[in-house]
């Protein structure tokens, strides 16, 4: 069995004191990133981390990598993936949410200042709730078999909690407002190459 480096979990005070020392990678969706991120963070959504591995590996040779997300779960997943490649990382305990709760500055790109986007967890809750209600209403008005939709969503939520994964978030992450424009991802990759 391979021995991978263990990601370090840092508190908000620790990160704030050393923020300028880190290469900060925000693995949230482009929409979430646009709504506010740690100063200097580069947006490489979780589903794009594999594509960015060469640039992250190269940048990690010249500085410490801090991986952040909304609450810490996606950052932990990205850190495990990076650890499998031998890249040592740190994560922010509680993610961007904990950072904002402390009243620390969040940066927003100019183009995103006029567009509000819900966080992924909120998008998942809204979608799951809507589908459950839809299944119940259709089951009552049209045919009882539609209640299976509600049961399937409930089962998916239980599976998601047990495995700490979320298939619905993966699907929602592919919607246009959650996807980075190609130029944005290319810009982040170029910034990583410049850090090497």
How would you describe this structure to a colleague?
By secondary structure, this protein is α/β, with parallel strands linked by helices. It is built from nine helices and five strands. A five-stranded parallel β-sheet has the order 1-5-4-2-3. Helix 4 (73-84) links the parallel strand 4 (64-68) and strand 5 (89-92). It is elongated and about 60 Å long. The mean pLDDT is 85.
Largest sheet: 5 strands, parallel
Strand sequence of the main sheet, in spatial order? 1-5-4-2-3
Terminal-residue CA separation: 30 Å
The amount of beta strand, in percent, is: 5-15%
Report the radius of gyration as a whole number of Å: 19 Å
Which spans of ≥5 residues are poorly predicted at pLDDT below 50?
none
Molecular shape: elongated
- pLDDT average, as an integer? 85
Strand pairing plus helix content: what structural class?
alpha/beta
Seen as an oligomer or otherwise, the chain set is: single chain
- What's the total helix number? 9
